[in-house]
Design a protein that fits this description.
Elements lengths: L1 H87 L4 H73 L3 H113 L6 H4 L5 H35 L1
């Protein structure tokens, strides 16, 4: 009897010892898992910081580049608008109506682009950021559940191995009971994991839909910009016609002014020639009765010859003047 009692006490002692040993082993496993998890968290945090720094640097560079491009485009756009405003002053009524129609169409298209850029795109970005923040929270929960599930599986494996090795019935029963408790707990955790994974899948679908909508907005803006570019090309054609028409009118007016100046100069020259001819034709005749009354016949004959010579010289001079006038007309 004493031997049986001692044997039972010995078994009980061994059982307690094995349980304490098992608890210590589990504690060591948990501590090792905790250290491993801590290292993972540190690494994740470090990678996250690096990623954030890279994103911030990229955003800053992109923002600076965009600001510079907007400044150049604004200056160019301002100069073009000033040139268009000046050209409108020279357009005729038909051209003004065509310009008004084209500019109205362009304004409508630009308004559609502004609606996308100022309302639709920001709304999509806001929704996407909200989903990403929520998704990050759910991912943290999923990470915790996965870690807990992993710990349970580790403990289950340990208990299962101990159960196989144990020869003590009461210990085997205790281990089996614990194993089933862990299995039930693992199943509950697994259900929670499935729910979170389903939630994350829904969020991924929403994010995918947002990206698709954003791409549609980009395509729509590109289509609108192409239409605006076509309108701008048509406007340039209208303005080119206006410039060519005004330039043609200016050249024609200059020709008319040059022609008028030439005709005026020619008329002035002709008038001077006519005056000179008239002066020569109206040369006074000598009053023979008073002047020649007391003159001798020889003197009268000599004076008559001199007068004839002067008349010949006058006619020759007039012929030369007329030749010069004809030559000037031919050269003109």
């Amino acid at each position: 009897m004493t031997t049986e009692t001692e044997e039972l006490q010995t078994k009980e002692f061994l059982k307690r010892t094995e349980i304490r040993t098992m608890k210590k082993d589990l504690q060591k496993l948990r501590e090792a898992d905790a250290l491993e998890e801590k290292d993972k968290i540190v690494k994740i945090k470090t990678l996250e910081e690096v990623r954030q720094m890279a994103e911030e640097k990229e955003k800053k560079s992109e923002s600076e580049g965009k600001a510079g491009m907007e400044k150049v485009l604004f200056k160019k756009d301002k100069e073009e608008k000033e040139a268009e405003a000046n050209l409108k002053n020279y357009a005729n009524e038909a051209e003004k109506q065509q310009i008004f129609l084209l500019e109205s169409q362009r304004f409508n298209l630009e308004s559609q682009i502004r609606l996308i850029e100022e309302e639709k795109d920001p709304d999509l970005k806001l929704e996407k950021n909200s989903i990403l923040l929520e998704k990050r929270d759910w991912e943290k929960k999923l990470h915790s559940i996965l870690e807990e599930e992993k710990k349970l599986e580790t403990e289950q494996k340990f208990i299962s191995d101990r159960e196989k090795e144990s020869n003590v019935l009461s210990e085997k029963q205790s281990l089996e009971k614990r194993r089933w408790e862990l299995e039930e707990k693992r199943q509950e955790i697994e259900k929670g994991r499935w729910a979170i994974e389903k939630k994350l899948a829904e969020m991924e679908n929403k994010l995918k839909k947002i990206d698709e909508d954003y791409e549609k907005n980009i395509a729509e803006k590109n289509d609108l910009r192409e239409k605006i570019a076509e309108i701008d090309r048509t406007l340039r054609e209208v303005y080119s016609k206006t410039i060519n028409r005004v330039e043609g009118q200016r050249i024609e007016a200059e020709k008319e002014r040059t022609s008028a100046r030439g005709e005026t100069a020619e008329a002035n020259l002709q008038e001077k020639e006519n005056i000179q001819r008239e002066q020569w034709r109206r040369a006074p005749e000598p009053k023979e009765k008073e002047f020649l009354k007391n003159m001798s016949s020889a003197l009268k004959e000599k004076l008559s010859r001199k007068t004839e010579d002067e008349e010949k010289n006058r006619k020759k001079f007039m012929e030369n003047i007329e030749k010069m006038a004809d030559s000037g007309k031919k050269n003109g």
